[in-house]
Amino acid sequence: MKITLKRTPEQIELVKAMASKNRDVAYEAQVALAEFIGPVLAKVINQAPTLSNLFSNFAFSADESPSIPMDLYYDVTDEDYVTVWSQAVPGGLPTNTVTPIGGEMKFTTYRLDSAVDFDKRYAQRSRMDVISKSFSRVAQEVLLKQERNSATLLLGALAESSTKGKNHVIKAANSGRLILDDFNRLLTLGKRINTAWTGGTPEGGIGGRGVTDLIVSPEVVQGLREMAYNPINTKGNNTDIAATDSMREAVYSNGGIPEFYGINIMELQEMGHGQRFNKLFASLVDGQANDIGFASDGSFGADSESEIVIGLDKRVESMLRAVATDSETGSEFSLVADDQYSVRQSKIGYYGSIEEGRMILDNRALFGLVV
Predict the structure, then answer these.
(1) What CA–CA distance (Å, rounded) separates 66 from 290?
(2) What's the DSSP call for residue 6?
(3) Is it the case that residue 49 has pLDDT exceeding 70?
(4) 285 to each of 131, 219, 340, how far by Cα in Å?
(5) Per-residue model confidence (pLDDT) at position 236
(6) More reliable by pLDDT, 95 or 110
(7) Is 216 helix (H, G, I), strand (E, B) or coil?
(8) What average pLDDT does this structure show over 81-85?
(9) Cβ-Cβ contacts under 8 Å for 104 (sequence gap 6 or more)
(10) Percent share of the chain, pLDDT over 70
């Protein structure tokens, strides 16, 4: 992520005015820059390719008490009560709230904020690079908080997901390797879990697919590339059956693997053995001997070689992010000039925040594969 302020005469004049000895002129210039940069930061945050942006956004006014009519998000034949996953505080564990589908659900929002300051002499010298990097840091800190909140909510809901007696998390055929058989079983699981509102086949057939995206580690993508030259079968006495020539050629030619077996692949550095999201999932399922992992007791195991792969059905509007918008500017991100510094401190500061709340209305859109 890189935010750059161009060295136009207007922007140079504005930045220099921020360091004016006249406090009123300096503060007005700082406020003007905040009003200009705030919407830009909001756009950068919303377009960043992160886990948090997998959630669908809906906006509400900052002075409102947001709610969701649950009957619009569930089928008419569903049970009277459903479970909704949400967080009460940023960084908190996901909470499973039992809600009647005919009711209006109120949910909690929280504020994610960041603050930055720099020496006034950088403004006097028109150091646009320093000021640009300061605003980049504000956006990065908010993105990091959003990412961790999203991961906690998503993995917490996945750890407890179960429909019609079927666990949403299954074990791969082989430890440490993702093969075609795993994709095939994951698609079947998605079809059995995601049915039409009548309980039968969804309209169009393909709607029952269930899994549209996989969130994986770089090592899993490495395993997919290996299919170009490694055997892929899981049955029979012959263990050296390779993929077809056309398939191996396609895998070899498309080393980035944005899509495989009709499923979109999203590669994250935080996924994988020993990485942040894998450790988080291990702590959420700690002690559950649920036969989903490769530990000695069948559990996921924080110290085992188990690795979680997250599957999503993005056609289902289940992952929602409610974000407050400013009633005056309409921007989601609020950036204001920080007025805590005295003249002797010779600093210019900014404070930025975003108010949001995340929830998962239907965990039937979540799947897991332990590799």
Answers:
(1) 37
(2) -
(3) no
(4) 44, 22, 45
(5) 44
(6) 110
(7) strand
(8) 72
(9) 67, 68, 69, 70
(10) 77
User: Distance (Å, rounded) from C-alpha 302 to C-alpha 10?
Assistant: 55
| Closest C-alpha to 210, from 369, 367, 53, 51 | 367
Cα–Cα distances in angstroms (integers) from residue 326 to residues 32, 152, 163, 259, 320, in the given order: 16, 27, 40, 38, 19
Per the CB < 8 A criterion, the answer to whether 63 and 358 are in contact is no
Residue 256 reports pLDDT greater than 60: no
What tokens does 230 get? 């490694």
pLDDT band, very low/low/confident/very high, at 206 (cuts 50, 70, 90)? very low
pLDDT of residue 296: 57
Q: Going by C-beta distance under 8 Å and a sequence separation of 6 or more, which residues neighbour residue 365?
A: 194, 312, 313, 314, 316, 318, 319
pTM of the model as a whole: 0.81
Query: What's the first-to-final CA gap in the chain, in angstroms?
Result: 31
Cβ density class 14-40: b for 16+ within 10 Å, e for less = bbebbbbeeeeebbbbbeebbeebbbb
Please identify which residue in the block is written with the tokens 């993702």. Answer: 178
**For residues 38 and 335, is the Cβ–Cβ distance under 8 A?**
yes
Q: Which residues lie below 8 Å from residue 227, measured CB to CB, with a gap of 6+?
A: 179, 180, 243, 247, 248, 251
CB neighbours of residue 84 within 10 Å: 23
Residue whose pair of structure tokens reads 């003249």 in the numeric block? 343
**Residue from 260, 256, 280, 108 nearest 179 by CA:** 260
Q: How far is CA 235 from CA 231, 239, 240, 340, in A?
A: 11, 8, 11, 69
Question: Do residues 38 and 331 lie in contact, with contact meaning Cβ atoms separated by under 8 Å?
Answer: yes
The residues that bridge with 57 in the sheet, in sequence order, are 321
- Rounded to whole angstroms, what are the CA distances from 284 to 87, 155, 300? 15, 8, 10
Full DSSP string of 296-360: TTSS--TTSS--EEEEE-TTS--EEEEEEE-TTT--SSEEEEE----GGG-EEEEEEEEEEEEEE
Query: Quick one: DSSP state of residue 41?
Result: H
Q: Which two tokens stand for residue 111?
A: 């504020």
Cα–Cα distance for residue pair 243/29, rounded to 1 Å: 64
Average pLDDT over residues 291-297: 60
- Both tokens of 100, joined, read 């009647």
